[in-house]
Amino acid sequence: MLSTIAMILSAIVGLSLIYLLIRTIQGHPVERRIVFVYIGLAVVLPLLMNKTLPLPVTKDVRKLYDRLEQLQPGSKVLCAFDYDPPSAPELQPMAVAFLKYAFKKDFKIIIMGLWPQGPQQAQQAIEEAMLDPIIAGKNLVQGEDWVNLGFQSGNEFVIQSMGTEFKRMFPKDNRRIPYEDIPLLQNVVNFSNVDFVMNFSAGKPGTYEWVQFGVDRFGFELGAGNTAVQAPMMYPYLRAGQLKGLLGGMIGAAEFEKVLNEKGKASTFLLAQTFAHATVIIFIIIGNLAFFASRKKKTAGAR
Amino acid sequence: MRRQIPILITTIAGLVFAISYFIPHDPFGESESIFGDWITIVQAFAVWLGALNLLKISFEKISSKSADRHYAAIIIVSLIGTLAVGFYDGYSGMAQDPQVSFRDPGTNFDWLYRFIYTPLSATMFSMLAFFVASASYRAFRARNVQATLLLIAGFFVMGGRVPLFDMMISPITDFPVFSWFADWIMTYPNTAGQRAIMIGIALGIMSSSLRIILGIERSHIGGGSG
Amino acid sequence: MRLSSPNLTHNCLKIALFTLSLLLISLNAPLAQDAETAPDTAVTIEQAVDSANVAPLPAVNVMVADLPNDKGGAVLVSWELSPDDDGNGKVSGYLVQRSESKDGPFETAGNAVRGATKFTDNKTDDDKVYFYKVAAYFEYLDAAEEKIRITSAATVTGPVQSSAQWFNMNRLYVLLFMLFVAGAIIFYIEKAKKGDEIYIRKIAGIDAVDEAVGRATEMGKKIFYIPGIQDMNDVQTIASIAILGRVAQMAAEYDTWLEVPVSKSMVLVTAREAMKEAYTKVGRPDALQDAQVHYLTDDQFGYAAAIDGMIVREKPATIFYMGAFFAESLILAETGNSVGAIQIAGTAQPAQLPFFVAACDYTLIGEELFAASAYLSREPRQLGSLKGQDMGKGLFILCIIVGVILATLNVWDMSVIFASK
Amino acid sequence: MEMISIWIAAILTLGIFSFLYKDNPLYKACEALFVGVSAAYWAIVFYFDNIYKKFYEGAVTAEEPDYFLWIGAILGLLFLTRLVPKIGWVSRWPMALIVGATAGLWMVGYFVSNAMNQIGNTISNIIARDELTGAIAWGETFGTMVILVGVVSGLVYFFFSKEHKGVFGATAKVGTWFLMVTFGASFGYTVMSRMSLLIGRVDFLLGDWLGILR
Fold first, then answer.
1. DSSP for B78-141?
2. What domains does chain C contain, in order, with CATH numbers?
3. Reduced to 3 states, what is the DSSP secondary structure of residue C158?
4. Residues D124-162, buried b or exposed e (16+ Cβ, 10 A)?
5. What is the CA radius of gyration of chain C?
6. Which chains neighbour B (Cβ–Cβ under 8 Å, 3 or more pairs)?
7. In this complex, do B74 and D110 lie within 8 Å of one another by their Cβ atoms?
8. In terms of domains, do A195 and A298 share one?
9. Does C173 reach chain D within 8 Å, measured CB to CB?
10. ipTM exceeding 0.85?
11. Is residue D10 part of a domain?
12. Which of A32, A72, A184 is opposite residue C33, by nearest beta carbon?
């Protein structure tokens, strides 16, 4: 019912864009608040439609998946959560999908954050992953199967220092259990004792720093989930092999969910994302048509 | 004295971190770790400086009867209130067995995080979606060759990363032409452009760092040219 | 594309092959983490009815060596896979043990997952000598859900001693290239200090400054100069202030009102000084008013909203955006565009450049901002650095071209000297 | 309780969104709340995860105290002198430590990761071959050439000590095209990012608050 109304409404909204085009070409651009309304509708209506779309999986996501598939059960994976709530719509679905997959594959997860909010986002992601019946059935134990080391200040200096000794930066875990008393961390001294590093990053410090002060110094393997703003800057690293795979933005998250076969939030947002992109594209076109029309008028007038 | 000591500290710290990349042996390896410890602590104090400074400015606003003193009052109350909750949760959590962290689900601090901090910060940034749309309608023009190229590339990436264009051409072909093309742009021209920018920035950082370590650049310690 | 070393690729392929078959068995058998001394010889268990319950063959060709290029305290133990570690599920992992004497007792140094061929023992003492053993083991749950581990025999390898190195040889080429670039920068700074002319090419956005200031004068409207939202510790803000000096000079000459709203108190002070200097230079120090440079707020969106309001009210003829900008860039550029101002922007924030290019008349891209600042200020430090960096770029361009030709002709793969770990 | 919490979050969300209509007291109040809560949030996390866990427990209550950490704490306290303008100049010491160390770390880090490794990856046989069959991979070969041309021409564009004339100028021009395509890609991705954030908020309003999704 709601879905049908939403579809009819979006058709009407779509048609009204033609009116907008005419107004703009006539030289009366509409107020910005009207544009705001369109964007609001472009996001609200598709969410109500509750439809999923087919999505091809790009090779950067596939690459990460292939690498993860090669990790053996029992592999130790360091997970750096470097983001805050504003970027959570993009990164949280990745983190949840990753944790679900990792727990199902019996990876040992070591969580840390270079952003103060990171470990808290990680707690939320773990909470959600634990709801999965298969994972719940494993009765995972904090300290043996996963550990949250918390946050440490110092940005890239934390990575640099961890290259020698994790314990120096994280003398105790989130629950203040001393590093040496945590079963999972026995014989984990520095990066040479973890099998893979996964980073969810919304900016600085983040994947940039992990590559520069981690991968290129200590030679571990790194995979990353990034906000879309940051993702394009990571392609040189991806090509040079400094990054083993990249999930870019919510679309990357949706692809990751697809390839891992974990249905999550990102996939359900795909339609809204598509509508929003379409709206922006249409606005750029309208704006530019008006721009050229006015330029033509001007040159004609000058003659 | 006021000038020399900071310059000396800058140079020593800079040299330690630059040299230890090449010489892992002590004293460089070890002093790097010690300096790293200090930096993490100093940065923690820097955050406290920010919070205290905010308090100071807000109190000043109230005492000077500035127009936005009401908002300054909100800042003071919310800042002190959150600090109180955080300290209470942190210390009482330590007394429990097993210990509970202030960020564990169920604590008051976590409630503040989920229901106050998260909606405020996330909504603040989500407003950019509206601004980007209105800017693309009112300001993003193909005013010259450069801007035209930019908009065309943006057009294909925006449309290709979601199944928008590909659905339109699905009656003709099943091959996702546009998403393939968006991917191609990202993998090749984007990599090339980003790489050129990256190399340029790396050289720029290298030269400014060099000037800082050698004491030629002193703006960070409140001095102009050397 | 060089994504991984051949050895790794080889192993990865192997691992991928038997991942699936092993997954089933291992689902309920996480690796034991606790330190315990494992028996030296194979254990046979009475209940072992399954053929899989026979101890696996040990790892072969175990090698131990000091971890190279480190600061000591680490030994690298490497081996070749146990013949049983081939996808039939008979190996669950490897147990690395060490002792200070050849005859033991041996203690656990660590575990490695199946398919792994190396382990770094990071807990060694440089003064001591160590012996290592690498055993393969198989783990399963018996009828009582008890975890049973059967460990293979293992031979003792050693002795080995860890040590610190004085120079990381992998990084020699990095050092050479850095010395070249650093040398060039210092050389040209000294040269510029002596007063030697250093040429800098014309930059489109900078040429447009005259025109933009002139237009404001003709129209009798204001000029806004926005120096970004970062403090004075950001090089972009420093560059911005240098450009402001030049713009202020022109504005003073033409007697046009130049307004600089800032978001950091340090920037306020510095911008005022730069303006004073500029106005004095053209002999009009009295024309400068304090209100021309003013502080708005530290807050990002608050700053953007305040400038928005100013632009809409005052409708300036020209707006400069120079410095470090973040998400507010598009809000500002859109509003400036809507009042028909000429907009000249410059930033080194890659993520904001698209918005400036699409919404402004001229944009200084990345390094052009610094070049413009050197070009206008003629300061030896900046000029020399710019020239020195150009030397670095020149060397890199040369290396790329020569390297690609050599690689394509299969003469020499030059990339090895750049790929440093 | 859950219900009240969600209502509070929803009201705050709408309060911020009210700015889209126009600047108003509710928005300003929400903004002030945000500034206060986030400053305190940071302060608390840095206190417990660093000052308490790293310094206090490492240098004061530990069995084998690491006395070196005291120097870090003293430098940190010196930083706070900024609050007192008269003695504020001492805060330059810790500042000098951070600036110096960052310069040293970055100088090498950027040079290695963003210059050396990128040059190394650009230098390759432009004829790409399939890893398994050894046949020429035309798509990858073309892509490799695109990257080669893009990197070189981009670097030429950022060359400032030579005039952009003739072949050099033409190359620089090609460089700007690459930069523009790069910025276009960035632009598209940024739009994508911003829209996702909004979708996240709308999902909260419609789903968690109003409960009309699914």
1. HHHHHHHHHHHHHHHHHHSSS---TTSTTSHHHHHIIIIIHHHHHHHHHTHHHHHHHHHHHT--
2. 6-166 (2.60.40.10), 198-378 (3.40.50)
3. strand
4. bbbebeeeeeeeebeebeebbebbbbbbbbbbbbbbbbe
5. 34
6. A, C, D
7. no
8. no
9. yes
10. yes
11. no
12. A184
Q: Does D17 touch chain C (CB under 8 A)?
A: no
C301 in D contact zone (CB under 8 Å): yes
Cα(C110)–Cα(C103) distance, integer angstroms = 19
In angstroms, the separation between the Cα of residue A181 and the nearest Cα of chain C is 11
Q: Is D184 near chain C, with CB under 8 Å?
A: yes
- Domain of D193 in residue numbering reads as 138-214
From D59's Cα to the closest Cα of chain B, the distance in A is: 12
pLDDT, one tens digit for every residue, chain C (421 residues): 333 333 444 444 344 433 433 333 333 333 333 333 333 333 334 434 444 567 888 888 899 999 988 888 899 999 998 888 877 778 888 999 999 988 878 998 888 988 888 999 999 999 999 999 999 988 887 777 777 888 888 888 889 999 998 898 889 999 999 999 999 999 999 999 998 888 988 888 888 888 999 999 999 999 999 999 888 777 788 889 989 999 999 999 999 999 999 988 778 888 998 999 999 999 999 999 988 998 887 777 778 888 988 998 899 999 999 999 988 898 899 889 888 899 999 998 888 999 999 999 999 998 899 888 888 888 888 899 999 999 999 999 999 999 999 999 999 988 888 886 6
For residue A51, give the 3-state DSSP assignment: coil
Residue type, A103: F
The answer to whether A110 and B143 are in contact (CB under 8 A) is: no
Q: Are residues A67 and A182 in the same domain?
A: yes
- Residue A39's domain spans which residues? 2-51+269-302
Report d(CA C382, CA B142) in Å as an integer: 34
CA–CA gap between residue C150 and residue C130 (Å, rounded): 25
Is the Cβ of B137 closer than 8 Å to some Cβ of chain A? yes
D42 lies within 8 A of chain A by CB? yes
Closest CB to A74 among C3, C30, C34: C30
Per the structure, the count of domains in chain D is 1
Q: How far is C255 from chain A (nearest CA, A)?
A: 31
C408 in contact with D at a CB cutoff of 8 Å?
A: yes
Give the pair of three-digit tokens for residue C372.
């413009």
Q: Is A228 on the interface with C (CB under 8 A)?
A: no
Is there a domain that residue D200 lies in? yes
CB C381 within 8 A of CB C190: no
Closest chain D residue to C370, measured at CA: D160
Residues A11 and A116 in one domain: no
The total number of residues shown for chain B amounts to: 226
User: For D65-112, how does the pLDDT look when each residue is reduced to its tens digit (9 = 90+)?
Assistant: 999 999 999 999 998 888 888 887 888 889 889 989 999 999 999 999
Same domain, A261 and A199: yes
Between positions 119 and 138 of A, the ones with CB within 8 A of D are none
**Residue D71 domain flag:** no
Do A179 and A285 lie in one domain? The reply is: no
Of C181, C305, C371, the CB nearest to D23: C305
Residues in chain C with CB shorter than 8 Å from the CB of B150 are 354, 357-358
Q: How far apart are CA D202 and CA B145, in angstroms?
A: 37
Based on the fold, state whether residues A263 and A197 are members of the same structural domain: yes
C418 interfaces chain B, CB cutoff of 8 Å: no
Indicate yes or no: CB of B103 within 8 angstroms of CB of A120: yes
Let me know: does D144 contact B191? Beta carbons within 8 Å. Answer: no
Do A32 and A150 belong together in one domain? no
Find which of A131, A268, A281 to mutate to test the B interface (most B CBs within 10 Å of its CB): A281
- Model confidence over B4-60: pLDDT tens digits? 888 999 999 999 999 999 998 888 888 999 999 999 999 999 999 989 988 998 999
State whether A229 and A290 are in the same domain.
no
